[in-house]
Amino acid sequence: MKIGMVGLGRMGANMAERLAQKGHQVIGYDPQEAARQRVEALDMPTVGSLQALVDLLEAPRVVWMMVPAGAPVDDTLDELTAVLAPGDTLVDGGNSNYKDTLRRAAHLKKKRLHYVDCGTSGGVWGLKEGYSLMIGGEAAVVKRLQPLFEALAPAADKGWGRVGPVGAGHFVKMVHNGIEYGLMQAYAEGFAILHHKADFDLDVHAVAEIWREGSVVRSWLLDLAAAALKDDPGLGGLQPWVADSGEGRWTVAEAIDLDVPAPVITQALIERLRSRDRDSFSDKLLAALRNQFGGHAVKKK
Q: 138 catalytic, yes or no?
């Protein structure tokens, strides 16, 4: 199958390369010339405009977008809808908010364009191991794109599936990332306890390696934790600053809207926000209050 890949950042380029390895024809586009050159170095063709990309695809066309969530997706869709034809299909493989996906799909339906949302997990390892794909869209359209999903997934019958109508793919991926927040936080806290137990002088990397085999807490995240601890056991080369992609926030907001208690995911998000407060006013006020009511000592600069 011949497809266009729009967005040749690391994820998009890796997905394009995996598709090409599996026998699909991929034509790439990215507004950044450097990104196009990286893909061209892998012997995959690129073009310098969306019009040129569409001209090289056969109807009904398939264009897969790996574009940052938000305005960049809307801007790309505006350009694409001006050059695509009825019956063509757009796939959003990024981390869009499912509510935006529903809005976009309704708009594209009026133009008789198909829209598929594909929540994608696998990160930098997807090229080698395959991607987990959570797909939303019309059943017939997803069926037609099945060869692409089978090529990107870990196996033709594993790691991918249509989870529901349009919007469902990004919704499931949102919750997936919320769960990821909680799992990562639990590992982080557990290893912090091990690290601070000075009496035992624990080798936390060795503990991670033990847990990787046979333990009920073994997982791919634990594998990655073990790799990080092997390279830098004390993590002295890192700053304690943790970003968030936004999907944890969306998951917490959705849980509130649905009256579903999600304390672990919510607290994991709060801890990420705390990690960025270098000069915490709230902690200073806590110290000041203890000093005011109990005369407890405070540390001053």
A: no
